[in-house]
């Protein structure tokens, strides 16, 4: 998931697109080391535990759980387990295209 | 214990309260009430044991003596237990639930069994719609009869139960069961719309019932599933900076719940 996310950040850097992670690691220094190593440059909410309020609220039943929200804040996709890069990119492209249409 | 009870019975009322007498008086006071509550469960248990023994015997006989096995097969324990459940149903309507479930094991044709079952459902609805167990147990019992009743009829019975009951909890549960049956895998748009209307009715007409709470929970959860709009949240990122989900309005957002672990 991470290498693909890194490429998505690069690929869509000039488009209305953002990755917001909700990280659920327990130790901050461990996370910082790994994030540096894996070049996690996008924003991540710090929760400190897989059993946190945000995960509960979003009915996360396992990790990773990946959601795709459109510009209005509506959940358009929800995957339990990482989607394939192809499926994810297709969904992003579709939402970006929709976005372009409504902006016209 | 028996002797103590006996002593208590014959003792004149203004008797000095002896600690032993207090201890002994409690079971004798609660005894009969507990019996009424457990009579149904006890009878069900007794019948289940009889059915199990009957099955074991049948299995053994089917290998050794086919003729005897055939005779035994016609003597399903339910037949002998039936009058006892029937008698119990006068004081505990749940006996009718058992009869509904087991009625097809009585000798007779399929249409007779069907008639019996339909009669039992009618009796449950007419006499027991206000019982606290009716809201959960009647819909569950009906659901188990899908071999016998068609879906439209079952739905009509649930609706009838909801209107027959003077108890909000029962009515709401019956309606919730109906809504559940309308939202199956192959539900039509009309059925889904009807289920939604029922949920709305449960919320407004039957506020405070457990069914209303379940509807509220379901609706709150839907905002966090595909097609829903989640409430905004504020979080602190890994650099200690606060942000909100709404900061990203106007953008396609990939929200990833993850960890290195």
Can you tell me about this structure?
The complex is a heterodimer of chains A (104) and B (261). Chain A has helices at residues 2-11, 28-37, 53-57, 85-103; strands at 17-23, 44-46, 65-69, 75-80. Chain A is globular and about 40 Å long. Chain A has four helices and four strands; from the N terminus they run αβαβαββα. Chain A is an alpha+beta fold and 104 residues long. The N and C termini of chain A lie far apart (33 Å). In chain A, helix 2 links the parallel strand 1 (17-23) and strand 2. The longest helix of chain A has 19 residues, at 85-103. Chain A has a single domain, classed as 3-Layer(aba) Sandwich (Glutaredoxin), CATH 3.40.30. In chain A, strands 1-2 form a two-stranded parallel sheet. In chain A, strands 3-4 form a two-stranded antiparallel ribbon. Helices cover 42% and strands 20% of the residues of chain A. Chain B has a domain at 129-223. In chain B, helix 4 packs antiparallel against helix 5 (94-102), helix 8 (151-164) packs antiparallel against helix 9 (168-182) and helix 9 packs parallel to helix 11. Chain B has a two-stranded antiparallel sheet with strand order 1-2. The longest helix of chain B has 46 residues, at 19-64. Chain B is built from eleven helices and three strands. Chain B is mainly α and 261 residues long. In chain B, 66% of the residues lie in helices and 5% in strands. The model of chain B is unreliable at 1-33 (pLDDT under 50). Chain A binds chain B through residues 1, 5, 8, 15-25, 28, 30-32, 34-35, 38, 43-47, 50, 54-55, 57-60, 63-78, 88, 92, 95-96, 99, and chain B through 221, 224-233, 235-238, 243, 245-246, 248-261. Strand 3 (65-69) of chain A pairs antiparallel with strand 3 of chain B, so a sheet runs across the interface.
């Amino acid at each position: 998931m991470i290498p693909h996310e890194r490429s998505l950040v690069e690929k869509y850097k000039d488009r209305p697109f953002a990755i917001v992670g909700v990280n659920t690691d327990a130790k901050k220094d461990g996370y910082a080391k790994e994030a540096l190593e894996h070049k996690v440059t996008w924003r991540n909410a710090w929760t400190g535990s897989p059993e946190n309020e945000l995960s509960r609220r979003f009915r996360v039943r396992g990790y990773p759980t990946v959601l795709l929200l459109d510009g209005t804040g509506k959940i358009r996709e929800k995957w339990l387990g990482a989607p394939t890069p192809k499926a994810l990119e297709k969904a992003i492209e579709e939402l970006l295209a929709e976005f372009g249409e409504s902006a016209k | 214990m028996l002797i103590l009870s006996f002593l208590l019975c014959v003792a004149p009322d203004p008797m000095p309260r002896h600690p032993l007498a207090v201890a002994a008086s409690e079971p004798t006071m609660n005894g009969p009430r507990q019996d009424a509550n457990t009579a149904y469960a006890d009878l069900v248990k007794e019948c289940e044991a009889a059915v199990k023994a009957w099955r074991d015997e049948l299995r053994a006989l089917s290998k050794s003596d086919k003729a005897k096995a055939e005779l035994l097969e016609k003597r399903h324990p339910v037949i002998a237990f039936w009058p006892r459940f029937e008698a119990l149903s006068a004081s505990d309507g749940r006996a009718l639930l058992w009869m509904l479930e087991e009625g097809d094991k009585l000798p007779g044709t399929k249409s007779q069994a069907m008639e019996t079952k339909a009669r039992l459902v009618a009796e449950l609805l007419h006499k027991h719609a206000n019982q606290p167990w009716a809201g959960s147990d009647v819909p569950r019992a009906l659901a188990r009869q899908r071999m016998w009743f068609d879906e439209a009829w079952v739905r009509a019975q649930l609706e009838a139960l909801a209107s027959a009951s003077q108890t909000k909890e029962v009515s709401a549960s019956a309606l919730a069961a109906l809504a559940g049956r309308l939202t199956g895998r192959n539900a039509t748009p009309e059925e889904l719309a009807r289920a939604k209307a029922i949920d709305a009715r449960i919320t407004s007409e039957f506020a405070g019932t457990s069914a209303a709470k379940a509807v509220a929970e379901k609706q709150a959860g839907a905002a966090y599933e595909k097609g829903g709009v989640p409430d905004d949240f504020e979080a602190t990122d890994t650099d200690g900076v606060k942000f909100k989900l709404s900061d990203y309005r106007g953008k396609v957002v990939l929200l990833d719940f993850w960890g290195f672990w």
